[in-house]
Amino acid sequence: MANVQDFAKKYRAMGYTCAESTIRAANEAWDLNLPEEALKMLGGFGGGMHSGYVCGAISGGVAALSARYNKKDGHSSPILSVKCKLFLNTVQERTGYLNCADLMPIYKTPEENCDPTVVLITGILDEVEAVELDIPEQLDYDLRYPPEGKPGFDNFYRRAKEQLAGKNSSVYMKDSFGC
């Protein structure tokens, strides 16, 4: 499977926002075949929804995971639930933040704009995507309230987090973006 991070660099160079670059990169890397109209929907998420809130690259990553794993609805996809939480928590753990306003002073540069942030976030998205989950696409019970003897969300999430930590995951530092 292709690398979202590499495609994101291409879309940033074309002038797309962080959110647009992330969804477009995942669309190309993961062969999601999303129509142009769907890709355009992420335009308003750049710059933390133009308000400094959740980073657009993070929003684009969640949208990409949704496009990849949501077969019916967000409540019925255990893989989507686990991967989204793993993605968000990993970004939070590595950067300390989820909001654009907090990330910009650390990762945005006059020369590269928000490219370092997009590279960092899409690298984490690639790592999360590489985690192999032993979860059926759909379950006949709600992961939040598993019947006795059945695994719940916390069981699946813990295993995914352990797998991610056990991989030789690349931790991106501010000076190692190589854009």
Verbal overview:
- The protein is built from nine helices and no strands.
- Residues 168-179 have low confidence and may be disordered.
- The two termini are 21 Å apart.
- With 179 residues, the chain is mainly alpha-helical.
- The longest helix has 18 residues, at 78-95.
Question: Would you summarize the structure shown here?
Answer:
It contains nine helices and no strands.
Radius of gyration: 16 Å
The largest pleated sheet is described as: none
Beta strand count: 0
Query: What is the multimeric organization of the chains shown?
Result: single chain
Q: Report low-confidence residues grouped into runs of 5 or more.
A: 168-179
Shape designation: globular
Structural class: mainly alpha
Number of helices: 9
Q: In which range does the helix fraction lie?
A: 55-70%
> Termini separation (Å)?
21 Å
The fraction of residues in strands falls at under 5%
SSE series: HHHHHHHHH
Mean of all residue-level pLDDT scores: 89
